[in-house]
Amino acid sequence: MKAFRSLALLGASLALSALAAAQDKPSTKPAAKAPVPAVVAAIPTLGVADPEQLLAAAQAYVGPYDCEFKQTMSVSQHQVNGYIVVTFSSKAYTMKPVRSATGALRLEEVGGGPMLLVQIPAKSMLMDTVRGRRVVDSCVHETQAKEVATDSNALGMNLPGQVNTGSCSPGTARC
Predict the structure, then answer these.
(1) What CATH number has the domain spanning 49-150?
(2) Cα separations (Å) of 70 from 30, 52, 65, 75, 125?
(3) What pTM was computed for the model?
């Protein structure tokens, strides 16, 4: 029993002396580097906008949008002239504006991202082009809301109960 007690005391004293020595020595571990946020690493380099892109950027509806299911979206000018920032669901996307042949304004995510915002006179929609689905739809800027309120045919179609009589004349069988 005496041998066990002295062995235990010897082990304890060695452990304490090792602990004291470790506290006296400076740490040999290099200081951990601060992690670089993924957002900073993912920022693409933006090229200088050409006149067509600048014209398209000027046509973008900038400001808050009210979307379906009480969701909101925001569109703002980027600090680099000719680019747009779309913010939805706490994520911000840098977009390049492109005018389409149909009159719609396409805001395409730069850096090969999948997001696409399409603005037409009646509404805007944010789409994921990789998944092939709408992320949010029926987003309306105050300018679009005014367009819909003043133009009963803003969607380009006849609504139920609405008859297109613009090209019909009385007494003709076809319009």
Answers:
(1) 2.40.128
(2) 50, 34, 10, 17, 14
(3) 0.62
